[in-house]
Structure formats: structure tokens, C-alpha cells
Amino acid sequence: MEFKKAERKQAKIRLALASPAGGGKTYSALLIAKGIGGKIAMIDTEHGSGSLYAGVPGIPDYDVLELSPPFSPKRYIEAIKLAEKDYAILIIDSLSHAWAAEGGVLDMQEAARLASKSGNSWTAWREVTPQHNELVEAMLQSPCHIIATMRSRQSYAQEEQEGADGKKKAVIKKLGLAPVQREGMDYEFTLVLDLSQEHYATSSKDRTMLFDGQHFKPSEETGAKILEWLNKAKMQSPVSLTASPPVSLTASPPVSLTASPPSSPPVSPPANPPVSLANSVQPIFPQTISPERVDELSRLLTAKGFLPGKVRQDFFRKNKIPTLSALTVERADKMIAYLKTFPDKNYGKDDSPVEGLFESNEED
């Protein structure tokens, strides 16, 4: 067991492409895979549509595994493990089927609810969620570059607004397009590109910082840029543990027992204070939590009954949380400590109001 310097050449890309039907997800995934380079495999859940691009000029050679229902996490994991034996790049087209298609997580949750004596949907989620987490872990731990496509659809939320008569009423608000997958799934990826109907890409999450604020058509060059970023031998701004000069214990001249008269003041200690890494390296911005911590929080929220959807949105609104990934380390620690005070049972229902976490003791 040993630590070693972080180098991007050890990393593999985790890229998500999200759009409504017709946004060019599959075509863009193949072009980007060509730019990254290496043998390409594709898991096709779209009834053979993944093979339609074979032989198209500019599209690289690739092999296809057509996955049919049931689209359970277990079958996706089996396909991922199979690809890892011979391929450098794996395109999962589409990951949305693992959530919302026949035999996917939503079907599994409903089956678990109907099979239980209580018919409790919260208990059913606690049975199914670990299986979905295993799929996420399989993608994160894979030695392949992973490019996953996800369908997008309009997302809505119900909010309370005060009318002219002073009475509160429920109002449906559009939140924009959201991937058809578990809430927070985008946190698992290094890069998330949203594609328009005109096939232009915009990054909604970009840890590479290559595409921030850009609007472009994905191409082979996109993949080449990603590969170059992955292969950089050193991080952009490494922190050296020896950046501060060592403190010399003999920096001050030696003290002579006869050099000073008895009335001389006592000799001061060396002028240089002890070197502390905490004092020598000061962060410019508050440190936000890692993707792994985001996933830990998302799983904990689910375990306590705050499931994706209105219940979790209400929880975020009451606690002034824009997204989990925006939380500072300190605030995330407080949130985890608070959630762990809840037993694993049916909290978070609409008829069980959630008190604020930080409203009374923390400024936003």
C-alpha cells in the first residue's frame, strides 16, 4: 500500500451525453470514441439502432451487443464486464433503459412493492437501490473509457405560491430538461454534455474545464481533447509538501554564556515559526465535496425516505441547498450527521414536514 502522485494518464473518462430523441447522442458518442482511440464496444438497448451507423463515412469500426429486456442493473453489469475483456472504450446506449424501461429499476421497485405484505414503496426502494448502486460502481471502476447516453425529458416541480386573495395554491413549474435516470446520476460523470435538437453540445458539468461556456458540435476532435487532458503527466497546480523552506534550528547565532552582561535580556527563540502545511497553503475558494461524497449523501437521503422527486426537492428548498455538489465539506458533514439521527423508516412523506437543517445556525 502506497501513495503516489496524481497523474491524469491513470484516469479513464466517464462521459454522459443527454438529449431528447433526435439529438444525435449515438452519432456523437461514436465520433468522440474515435477521437479517444482504441477498440470500441457498444451496448445497444435501442432495438438495433446502434448498428445503423456502421459503414457511415467518418464513423470508426465498432462491435455491438444488443441488450433486450429486462433492462436490470445486473444485465448491464454483465455486459460491462464482458466489454472489459477486449475493449478500450464502451458506449452504453442508452443508460436510461436501466432506470425507466421494461425490467429497469422503476419496474423492479414496483414489483418489490407489490410483493411486500405492507405494499410500502419506501421499503421497496431500500431493496432496489443497492442494485442500482452496483451498476454505478461497475461504471466507475471499469478500466474502459465509458460514454453513456441518456434520454432527456421536461422536468416539473410543484410549488406553493400566494395568490391575490392571500391564499396559498399549488403551482406547477417547469424546471427544464432532465436525464431519464436516478436524480444525481450526473454527479457520477467527469463530463456531461447536453445536446440540442440541432446537435450542438453544452456542458452542464465539466471537471475537465475544456468545454465550459462553449457551444459546439461533438466531433473526433472532442475526443482528442479529452484524451490529451487525461494523458497529462501532472496535475495543473500540484501542491508541494516541501514548498516552504525547512526551518533551521541554528538560524540564530549561537548564544555565548559570557558574551552578555548579567543584565542582558533573555535570548529570543528562533525568528522563524514552525512550518505548518495548513498555514502555508490557503484555499482560494471553500472546498466543495467530491463526487463520491455526493453519491454517499444521495444514498443516505434515499435510505431515510427522501426519495428523488418532490420530497427531495422540498428538502433542498427548506434547507437552501441548490445541489448536493455545491455543498461545502463542512456543510455536508453537518447534513450527514443530521440525517443519521433519522431511523431507516418512512420519513419524508408529504404529510411528514421536514425541519430545516441550517436555517437557524448557518448563513448562506
Provide structural commentary:
- Helices cover 29% and strands 17% of the residues.
- Residues 233-244, 246-252, 254-264, 269-285, 346-356 and 358-364 have low confidence and may be disordered.
- It has 2 domains: 9-163 and 170-230, 3-Layer(aba) Sandwich (Rossmann fold), CATH 3.40.50.300; 286-364, no CATH class.
- The chain is built from 10 helices and 8 strands.
- Strand 7 (191-195) and strand 8 (201-206) form a beta hairpin.
- Strands 1, 2, 3, 4, 5, 6, 7 and 8 form an 8-stranded mixed sheet that branches.
- By secondary structure, the chain is an alpha/beta fold.
- The radius of gyration is 27 Å and the shape is globular.
- Helix 1 packs across helix 6 (220-230), helix 4 packs antiparallel against helix 5 and helix 8 (291-303) packs parallel to helix 10.
Topology:
Blueprint: E1 14-19, H1 25-36, E2 40-44, E3 63-66, H2 73-83, E4 89-93, H3 97-100, H4 105-115, H5 121-141, E5 145-162, E6 168-179, E7 191-195, E8 201-206, H6 220-230, H7 277-280, H8 291-303, H9 310-318, H10 329-339
Parallel strand pairs: 1-5, 1-7, 2-3, 2-4, 4-5
Antiparallel strand pairs: 5-6, 7-8
